[in-house]
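Follow-up to my post from last week.
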Amino acid sequence: MQRRQFLAKTGMGFTGLALSSMLSAQKPVNPKAKRVIWLFMIGGVSHMESFDPKPELNKYAGKLLGDTPHAGALESPLVKQNLRELIVGLHKAQPRLYPLQVGYQKRGQSGIEVSDWFPHVGGCVDDLAVVRSLWTTDNNHGAQMQFHTGRHVLEGQLPTIGSWVHYGLGSLNENLPQFVVLGEPIDTCCGGPGAHGAGYLGPQHGGVRIDVKPENPLAYAKPFMEPEEQRKQFELIRDFNRLAEIEYPDDRALKARIQSYELAFRMQTAVPEVMRFNTENEATRKLYGLDQEVTKPFGETLLAARRLAESGVRFIQVFHGNNGGAGKWDAHSNLKKTHGELCAQVDQPIAGLLKDLKQRGMLDDTIVVFATEFGRTPGAEGTNGRDHHPYGFSAWLAGGGIKGGTVHGATDEIGFHAVENRHYVTDLHATVLHQLGLDPRKLEVPGHKRIDLDFGEPIEEIIG
Amino acid sequence: MAYGQAPPALQLLETRGAGCHNAQNKQSGLDLTRRETAVRGGDRGPGIVPGKSKESLLYLAVAHLAKPNMPKFAAKLSDAEIATVASWIDQGAPWGETLVSKAAAVVPNHWAFVPPVRATPPRPGNPIDAFLSVAREQRKLAAMPSADRRTLLRRVYLDLLGVPPTVEDSESFLKDTSANAYEKLVDRLLADQRYGERWGRHWMDIWRYSDWYGYRNGNDVRNSHKFVWRWRDWIVESLNRDKPYDRMITEMLAGDEVAPGDPDTLRATGFLARNYSKYDRDGWMQDAVDHTTLAFLGVTVKCARCHDHKYDPISQDEYYKFRAFFEPYEVRVDRVQGKTDIDKDGLTRIYDAALDRPTYLLIRGNIQTPDKSNSLLPAVPAHLGPALGKIAPVSLPLSDYYPDHREFVAIDLLAEAKGAVTKAEAELEKQKEAYAKVEKELAEGTVKSGYAKMRGAADGLELATKALKAAQAAVPALEARIAADRAKYAEPADKRFEELAAIARTKEREAGILKGDENLLRAQVELTAALVPEKKDEKKITEAKKKLAAATAALEQPATGYTPVGKEYLTKSTGRRKALAEWITSRQNPLTARVAVNHIWLRHFGQALVPTVFDFGRNGKAPVQPELLDYLATELVRTGWSMKGLHRLILTSRAYQMRSTAGEAQHPNAKIDPENLYLWRMNPRRLEAEAVRDSTLAVAGQLDRTMGGPELDTAKGFESHRRSLYFSHSPDAQMEFLKVFDGPNPTECYQRDESVVPQQALAMANSELSRQMAETLAKRLEGPQFTQRAFLAILGRPPSAKEKALAESFLEKSTARNLVHALLNHNDFVTIR
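User reply:
Got it. Predicted complex:
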C-alpha cells in the first residue's frame, strides 16, 4: 500500500500498465499456461448423461434405491458432510433410479467413455482430463456462484476464480480487459454478477462483459475527437483523478475508475478488432458450427473466446444456458429432450474450440475448463427429470499442461457420491492457478482471511 | 384443536410421523401435518383413502404390509397403535378444523417476524448518532469529522434531488452563516419538486416500474400496461406531498376499493396493473404475489409456489391463499377527460372482475395440476405478522362501475361527434369544389378521359354527402343514448327510461343505416377505383351490404334496447385487497416499516442496515444494528409513516454529514471495521444511472424541468433533455446510456449494482450527450477565470492549485470544450462524496 501511495503521489505509477495489477501481480512461478477459457453450463449438467456413465442405473431402472445393492448411498455420512442447507429436504435424493437417457461410446485412443450427446467433444477426449469426483455443498443454484467463489452463497459475494487470476497476474495485452465475460451470465436468483465479480478485491478485478456482436461489441466505442486530442484529454482526466486519489486514498472505486479510463482508451480500437470475424476462413467457421443454426450462437461465442485468448485476454468466462432463472440445464423434467437439445448447441462449438486452439498451437498454454454447478440425481424426479445433486459430478479440463486422455476420480456405481479422489470445487481453481504459475496461498488481501477450503489443492494426477 | 386434544391417531401422526413428514421437512413429498396434504400423499401416491384403511398407504406402511415400512428410523408401532390408525382411517380420518400446522409451529422466533421493539436511544441528541456512537466506542472506532460545507451541499443535493447544486445554490448556502443553515437546506430540498423525481425513481425500482411491452409496432400489449406512466406520476406526486407510506401501499394495492371512482388515487393501482400478462394469467398472479411480498414485506415467497418454503414459515397452501387476494382482479382502461379513444390515452387501473373466481393450489406449482378439490380463500401466512382483519365487500359508486356515465365523457363524445360533422361538412365542400372543377374542365374540353374523372368526382361528392348525413345523424343518436343512460342510472329511478331507451334505439338505428349506407358506397367507390380486377375488395362490399341489411332489418324490429355509452362493470369489489393492505400496513406487522426504513437508509448511506434488502427471512442476513433499525421503524410508524420525517432525521444526523474518507488508506478504523459497518465515515457512492445523465444535463443548464406525462422514446435520450425517469423503461426498452451505469432491471431491482467498468468511461468520453453538454457548457462559461468557474459549475468546488495548473497548461494545447469534457469525466462528477 505504501508503494501504491508513493506511486500515486509521485505520478510514477502510470506507465501504460494497470496500476493495481502492477502492485498485486505475482511473478508466475514455472507457468504452464498463460490463459484460461472457462465454460460454464448454467443449471446443472447431468454427469451421468455426459462424462460419467453408470450402467447400474439401467440395471436397476425404476427400482427404489433402498431396494438395490446401492442402498448405502442414502445412509452415507457423505450426505451430511457435504450438504449445507438451512433446512433439509428441499431437493431430495430422489429414491427411484432413473435409467441413462443416452448411450455411451468409448472414444479416442484413451477409450474414455463419453455420452452420445457429446460426439464432437468425445472426439477430443484424448486432450481432456475428466474429473468425475467433484462435490459441492449447496444443493440449490447458489452453487453457481459457489463454483466460482468457492464459498456457499450464504457467505456472500467473494472474489471469483477469474478475479483472482486478474488480481494475481500481469496483463498480456494493455488494450483489452484481462477478465472478459461472454454469454448471458447467471441470473440474479443464483448470485448474478457475483459469479464473475471480484468481491473485496474491488470492481476493477471483475469480469467485463462483451457482446459477441462484431458490428457493435461495445457501446460508445467511437471517439468524437482525434486520437491525439483524446490522448491528451485522457491524460488530464487521469491526472485529475490521481490528485483526487491523494485526497481519498481509501476510495477503491476511484482507483477502479482510473484504471477503467486507461483501459477504455485502448479498448476503443482493440475490442471491435477482436470481434471482427472477417479474417476467419470458411474452414474455421465450419469448425465452430457457424454454418448451422443450432450451433451458430455458441459457436460465435467460442470463436470470439479464441480471438480474445489469442489477443492476450487472461481469463475468458463463457456462460451457456441463462434462462432468466436457474438455467436451461436444470432438467427437473424432460431431461432427455432438453439435455439433448442443449448438448447439440454446445458440443460441436466446444470441440471446434479445442481443435482450433490445437491447430494454432495455443492449446499448449491455454486451459479450457468445462463445468457446471452440480450434477443431477441418479433417481428420477417426477417421471422424466433429475433433481439437483451436489454429492458427485463431473467437469473436464484441457490444454495448458493438463494431462489429456485421463479420467480422474470416480463416483459410486450409481453416480451418487464422489468416492474416489474427491475434490471440492476449489481444487479446480487451485489446478488452474497452479498451471498459471500462481500460488493461491499467496493470493491474499489484508483484512480478508481465507480458509483452507478457499485455496483448494491442485489435482496433481491430471497435471502433465 | 391442537395435537394434544386430537384423536389418538393424530397424536400418533404427530409423534411418530410428522418429524419427517411436515411442511418444512417433507420426506417423500409427504406432509402429515394437515389432512389435505396427508390425504394427497407424496411421491408414492395418496397417503390416506378416508374410510378405507386397507387401501391407505399410511396404514399399509405402519402395519409393514407394504414398503416402505414406517416409521423408517424407529421401532414399529404396537399392534394396538396400528389398530388405532386403521379404525381412525375407517371412520373417515377426522381432523380438527383448527389444527395448527406442525411445520409452522416449530419455526423459532426469527427476528424479522417479531414486531420491532423501540429501544430508548442510549444518549441524547439525534437517536441515529446515539446508537451508532455507542457501537463505535465499543469497538474503538473514531468517527470522522463532518465533511466541508461544499462537499456536504453537493451530497445533499445529489441525494435528495438527483442533480448537483448550481453555482448560485452553492453561493447562497455558503453565505448563510446561521447555525441552522444546514437544517434549512434540508427542509428546502425536501420541499423541492425534484425530490419526488429523484426518490420516485428509487421507489420505481422497488415497486418494479415498467412501461408496457410486447409488440410496440403491432400495438400488442403483452406485459405491463399502456398509460402505466400515470402510476409513475402518482409516485412522484405522492412523495412530494409526503403521503404517508401506509396510505401509499393501500392505494397501490386497493386504490379501487378505498377510493373508488377517484381517478387520482386509481393511478396508484398501476402497481398491480404492471403485472398484467396477456398470455399468462398464472405468471401474472405469481408476479402479483411475489412482488407484493418482496416490495412491502421483504420476503421471498416464490419458493412456496411449488413446495413449502424451506427457509421461512410459508407453506404452499399459504402461498396460494395469498394469491387468492389477487385472483379476482384484472386491468382496464377508463376514459380520461379530453380523450375519447382509450387506445390512445386513458387511466389504467385495476378492478375486481370476477368475485368468485376460485384459487386452487397447483400441485408442485404445475399449472396442469390444480388441486380442484379445494378452493382456497384469501389468508395471510400465519407466522408473518398479525391476524388478517375482516374481508368486507366494497360497494362501488356509479362513477366507478359505469365510468362512462361521468359528465365529461358525454361532453367529450358529443364534442367528438360534432367535430366529425364539421369535418364532414368541410369534406363535402371540398368534393363540391372538385366536382365543379371537373365540370368546368369538361366544359372547356381541357381534360382527357373525362367520363372517368366525372364519375370519380360524382362518387366523391355522393360519398361526402352520405358521410355528412351519417355524421349528422350520429349526434342525435349519441345524445339519445346519453339521455337514456342518464335515465337508467338516475336516483331515484327515472320513469321515462323506457321511452328514452326506445328513442335512443330508433335514433341509433337511423344513424346506423346512414352509416351503413355510407360504408356501402365507400366500398363500392373503392371497388370502382380499383379498376384492376385483382384489387377488387369483394369482402369490403359484402361487409358494407351486410351492415346495411342488418341496420335496415333492425329498424323494423320492435324497439327493446340501445347501445349504452360505455361498459358496465361489477357494482361490488371483494374487499380482499383492501384487507390485505390493512394487514400489511398494520402497526403490528413486523416487516413493513423495517423494510421501508432499510430501503431508505440504503439510498442515503450506500449500505443497508439489513444487507439482504429483499430477504428479511431466515435465508437473509440479520441487521448489524438491530436496535437502530427497530427504532427507525417504530419512528416511521409513530410519525404517521412520513418519509420526509425519516429523511430529515437521517440527513440531520452526524453520521450522514461525516467525511467520506479517513484521509489515509491504513487508518486504524479500517482494520477494526473494514466494511464500515458502524459508519465511522460516510461511504462514497457512485451516482445512479439516471443521476449521471440528469446531472450532465443539469450542469450545462440544459435539464428540461417538465414533469410527468407519457413515457418518452429511449432513442431520444440525448435529443430530449427531460429527466431520465420519464423515458420508456421496460425489458424491451431501456436507454443504453442508463444500462451502462447499472440502470435498474425493470423486472426486479431491489438494490442497484455500483460497478466501475470501462464501458462507463466510454459512455462519458464518447457519447453524444457528453459532447453536446461539454460544448454548451464551455460556451456558457466563456470569459475570465474559466478554470475556476468550470470546476465550480461541474464539481461544485474550486480547483486546487495543482488542478488549476494542470487545467491551464491543458488549455494551452487543447480547447475549453475539452477541459469541460474532462471535468465531466472526473471521477468526482459521478461520485457522491
